[in-house]
Amino acid sequence: MFSSPLVLQIPSSMQMxxxxxxxxxxxxxxxxxxxxxxxxxxxxxPTGSETGNRQGNILGxxxxxxxxxxxxxxxxxxxxxxxxxxxxxxxxxxxxxxxWNSLSPKQQERFAPICPDFVVELKSSSDNLQTLKEKxxxxxNEPGIQLGWLIDxxxxxxxxxxxxxxxxxLDNPASxxxxxxxxxxxxxxxxxW
Length: 193
What we know:
Blueprint: E1 6-8, H1 18-27, E2 32-35, E3 41-44, H2 49-69, E4 72-76, E5 80-81, E6 87-88, E7 92-96, H3 97-101, H4 105-109, E8 118-122, H5 129-140, E9 147-152, E10 157-161, E11 168-171, E12 175-177, E13 186-188
Parallel strand pairs: 8-9
Antiparallel strand pairs: 1-3, 2-3, 4-7, 5-6, 7-8, 9-10, 10-11, 12-13
């Protein structure tokens, strides 16, 4: 396993349009593919079973809260087109309905040109922590983002990101609150560790 994404540099004469990139990702469904703001393709291996189970637990808890709350919708490993041109795919995310509904049906169908209000990244054994921290900082510079969590289960730490504020981390928390971004959402960490 490698600890950083495989980075493919694409010559400027061969850069893909948004539609071509979407199609490329659809044809290669078994790969986790993102594109950074420089047009480079980042290819990550599929998560292992244990990490996939923990991601499912995070998503499940977020989805249940979101369905009860009714003010937004959840996403799992979904591509979003950021203002920098990067296409990123957080492990779990949530967007307020008002923001989501402002997009056209065509925009909603592909990699939506919007950054979620709330993103969660779960570090797998093949992930590089510094690379994930940089990804979280990238989200924090996007319009609309309000909160981000980077969960390092092996170290039992949760890094909390808010735009314009220094990041903080919780050491082995029993739960993490969605704060005012997703009021009432509490992630039970016993299902994540």
